[in-house]
C-alpha cells in the first residue's frame, strides 16, 4: 500500500526500514527522541482489536445564546474513565469526558468559553489553528491558576476547519495532553454547508492518540517515550470498530498524540489499494479533492477525508492500517475497522471544486529555522530551534505587521522526526526539499511534518493580530524539552 515513491516523498528512507506492515507496505521505525524508556515486548493490557465500538465525543451545548455569540462552560478536572474494557483509568478531562467534548462553532459568530481550573496545577487552553488575539491564544506562560477561571473569546473570522483545544502550560503541556486535556472545536461556515458534503451522523471525528498502560490500567507517562505508547485509541477507545452504511462518510482525523506519526491506509488484508478522497487539512478545505492511497498525520495535524462505502459489498471489513512505527506492528500497525453494511440512500457529494484559495502574495522577508535535538545516546535531553532552547523572556523573531514572509524550516536531527507549528497564522507550503507540495498539502496549514534531513519552505502573512506568539515543534514532548521560540508581530 505504501509505495516506494510515497516512502521517498515522505522521507521514510532516512529511517530504519523494518518488517512489512499490516497494509502490505513498509513498516518503518523512527526514533522519537533521546530520553525514551526501554521498550517492552508487548502491551500490558490484553485488548482484542476491533472488539469495542467506536464512540463519538459528546457535543457541548452552550449554556447561553445571544444574538451574536454562544457561551460555554468547561471545567478541567480529574475523572475516571473506562478506556480498556472492564477497567477504570484516572485521566485529566474537560468536563469529565475522555475524549473531551466537542464545541460546534460558526464562522462569523463569536464563541465564548469560560474554563474553570479544578486541577491542582496551572493550565492554559490553546485553540490550535485559531486566529485570535494574544489574550485569547492560550500561550504557554499565560496560565490559569488552580481554583481560578479564564474566559476565552473566539471571533471565528476564518474559514471553516477542524480545530482542537488543548493544554499549553509550558513544561506541563506534554503530560496534560497525554492524560486527556484536549477537545474538538469544529468551525463550520455557510460556504461549506452549500457543497453537499456528507453531514450529520455521516460526518464523524476520529481523534487519534496512543498510550502506555500498566497492569492496573493506569496511564504511564515518561517524557519522550514513543516506544511504549503502543495502545492506539480512537475517540478514547482502543482499536474500535465502526458499522457503516453503504454510502459516503466524511471523517475528520485529528492526531492528538504527543509523538506518534501516522501513515494510514485502508486495507482489506490484500495488496489491493483503496484510495480515499482527502478534502481538507489543518486550515480547512482544499481547493479540490485529492485522491490519495495514504493519509499522513504528525501530532497536531488534521485531515478531512471522504470514503464511499457503497463501492464495497455488504459484509466487507476494511482496516484503517498504520504503516509507521515505533512499536510492534501487531499493535501500532492497525487503528480501527470499518464494517460495511447495506447500501442506503445518499444525496451527499464531493464536488470537483471545494474552496477558493487566494493567490500567493509576494514575500518581502526570508528566514531560516533549524530544528535539532540531543540524539539518542548523547546523554542530553534538550531540543532546540536555531541552536537555542526556549526562553520566555526572549523574542526570537521580529515580524512587521502586514508583511508576507518565507520561512525555510529544516530538520537537522539525524534520526529524530519533528514538525513545526505556528500560532496565529495559517501558512501555505511552497516546497518540500525543492519540490512543490503534493495536492493533499496544497491548502492552509498550521503544522508541517519534517522527517530527518527534510526542508520545507512556508509562506506566511501576518495581517490579523499584533503581539507575541510562539512557534514550536508540536511533537509536544519536544517543545516541553525546549523546541519552542517566540515571534513578536508589531
Notes on the protein architecture:
The chain contains 5 helices and 33 strands. The model is unreliable at 13-25 (pLDDT under 50). It has a 7-stranded mixed β-sheet, with no helix packed on it. Strands 3, 4, 5, 7 and 9 form a 5-stranded mixed β-sheet that branches. It has helices at residues 4-10, 173-178, 190-193, 329-332, 476-480; strands spanning 16-20, 26-29, 64-65, 69-81, 89-94, 103-106, 110-117, 125-128, 149-154, 161-167, 182-188, 203-211, 231-234, 237-238, 241-246, 248-255, 262-267, 276-281, 284-292, 295-297, 302-308, 317-322, 334-343, 365-373, 383-385, 397-399, 404-411, 418-422, 428-432, 447-450, 455-461, 467-472, 484-489. It is mainly β. It has a domain at 365-489: Immunoglobulin-like. Strand 4 (69-81) and strand 5 form a beta hairpin.
Amino acid at each position: 500500500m505504501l509505495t516506494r515513491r510515497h516512502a521517498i516523498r515522505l522521507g521514510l528512507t532516512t529511517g530504519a526500514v523494518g518488517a512489512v506492515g499490516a497494509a502490505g507496505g513498509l513498516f518503518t521505525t523512527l526514533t522519537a527522541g533521546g530520553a525514551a524508556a526501554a521498550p517492552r515486548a508487548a502491551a500490558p493490557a490484553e485488548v482484542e482489536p476491533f472488539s469495542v465500538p467506536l464512540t463519538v465525543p459528546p457535543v457541548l451545548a452552550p449554556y447561553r445564546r445571544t444574538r451574536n455569540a454562544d457561551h460555554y462552560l468547561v471545567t478541567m478536572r480529574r475523572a475516571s474513565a473506562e478506556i480498556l474494557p472492564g477497567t477504570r483509568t484516572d485521566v485529566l478531562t474537560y468536563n469529565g469526558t475522555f475524549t473531551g467534548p466537542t464545541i460546534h462553532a460558526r464562522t462569523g459568530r463569536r464563541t465564548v468559553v469560560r474554563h474553570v481550573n479544578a486541577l491542582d496545577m496551572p493550565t492554559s487552553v490553546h485553540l490550535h489553528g485559531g486566529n485570535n488575539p494574544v489574550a485569547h491564544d492560550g500561550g504557554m506562560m499565560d496560565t490559569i491558576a488552580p481554583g481560578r477561571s479564564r474566559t476565552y473569546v473566539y471571533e471565528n473570522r476564518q474559514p471553516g476547519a477542524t480545530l482542537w483545544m488543548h493544554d499549553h502550560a509550558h513544561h506541563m503541556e506534554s503530560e496534560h495532553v497525554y492524560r486527556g486535556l484536549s477537545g474538538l472545536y469544529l468551525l463550520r461556515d455557510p460556504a461549506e454547508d452549500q457543497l453537499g458534503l456528507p453531514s450529520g451522523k455521516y460526518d464523524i471525528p476520529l481523534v487519534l492518540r496512543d498510550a502506555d498502560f500498566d497492569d492496573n490500567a493506569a496511564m504511564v507517562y515518561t517524557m519522550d517515550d514513543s516506544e511504549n505508547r503502543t495502545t492506539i485509541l480512537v475517540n478514547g477507545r482502543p482499536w474500535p470498530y465502526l458499522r457503516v452504511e453503504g454510502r459516503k462518510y466524511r471523517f475528520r482525523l485529528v492526531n492528538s498524540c504527543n509523538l506518534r506519526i501516522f501513515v494510514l491506509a485502508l486495507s482489506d488484508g490484500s495488496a489491493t489499494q483503496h484510495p480515499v478522497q482527502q478534502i481538507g487539512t489543518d486550515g480547512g478545505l482544499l481547493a479540490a479533492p485529492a485522491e490519495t492511497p495514504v493519509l499522513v498525520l504528525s501530532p497536531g495535524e488534521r485531515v478531512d477525508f471522504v470514503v464511499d462505502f457503497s463501492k464495497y459489498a455488504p459484509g466487507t471489513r476494511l482496516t484503517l492500517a498504520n504503516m509507521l512505527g515505533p512499536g510492534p506492528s501487531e499493535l501500532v500497525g492497525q487503528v480501527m475497522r470499518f464494517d460495511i453494511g447495506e447500501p442506503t440512500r445518499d444525496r451527499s457529494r464531493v464536488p470537483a471544486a471545494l474552496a477558493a484559495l487566494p493567490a500567493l502574495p509576494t514575500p518581502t522577508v526570508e528566514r531560516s529555522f533549524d530544528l535539532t535535538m540531543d540524539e539518542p545516546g548523547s546523554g542530553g535531553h534538550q531540543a532546540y530551534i536555531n541552536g537555542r532552547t526556549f526562553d520566555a523572556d526572549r523574542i526570537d523573531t521580529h515580524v512587521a505587521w502586514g508583511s508576507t514572509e518565507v520561512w525555510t524550516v529544516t530538520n537537522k536531527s539525524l534520526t529524530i522526526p519533528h514538525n513545526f507549528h505556528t500560532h496565529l497564522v495559517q501558512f501555505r507550503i511552497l516546497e518540500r526539499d525543492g519540490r512543490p507540495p503534493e495536492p493533499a498539502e496544497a491548502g492552509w496549514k498550521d503544522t508541517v511534518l519534517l522527517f530527518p534531513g527534510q526542508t520545507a519552505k512556508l509562506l506566511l502573512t501576518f495581517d490579523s493580530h499584533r503581539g507575541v506568539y510562539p512557534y514550536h515543534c508540536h511533537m509536544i514532548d519536544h517543545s516541553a524539552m525546549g523546541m519552542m521560540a517566540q515571534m513578536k508581530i508589531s
